[in-house]
């Protein structure tokens, strides 16, 4: 703001800046919430995928099937457990 702006001009500009700050903060919080939901969905999907792969690995192990095993959180190297 120029030093010779009127009181009204300064007040309006300060009000616009405050409103912009509030709006920007609100939008950022919405984005953070969306990221959190996306992160939770991703974690859930990963956990379900790992559980399914572990189940498949168990079937291969119990039946003494040859071949590789899936890499999962519980079995990061994909090794047979038998």
Low-confidence runs (pLDDT<50, min 5 residues)? none
Alpha-beta classification: mainly alpha
One letter per element, helices H and strands E, the order comes to: H
Q: How large, in whole angstroms, is the Cα Rg?
A: 28 Å
How many DSSP-defined strands?
0
Number of helices: 1
State the end-to-end distance.
Answer: 75 Å
The helix fraction, in percent, is: 55-70%
Beta-strand percent range: under 5%
* Principal-axis shape: rod-shaped
Topology of this protein?
Blueprint: H1 7-62
Question: Overview of this structure, please?
Answer:
This protein is an all-alpha fold and 82 residues long. It contains one helix and no strands. The chain is rod-shaped and about 85 Å long. The termini are far apart.
Features:
mainly alpha
Structure at a glance:
This protein is mainly α and 82 residues long. It is 68% helix and 0% strand.
């Amino acid at each position: 703001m120029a030093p010779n702006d009127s009181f009204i001009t300064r007040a309006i500009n300060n009000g616009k800046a405050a409103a912009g700050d509030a709006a920007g903060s609100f939008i950022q919080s919405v984005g953070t919430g969306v990221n959190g939901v996306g992160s939770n969905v991703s974690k859930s999907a990963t956990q379900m995928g790992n559980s399914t792969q572990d189940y498949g690995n168990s079937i291969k192990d119990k039946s003494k099937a040859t071949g590789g095993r899936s890499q999962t959180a519980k079995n990061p190297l994909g090794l047979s457990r038998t």
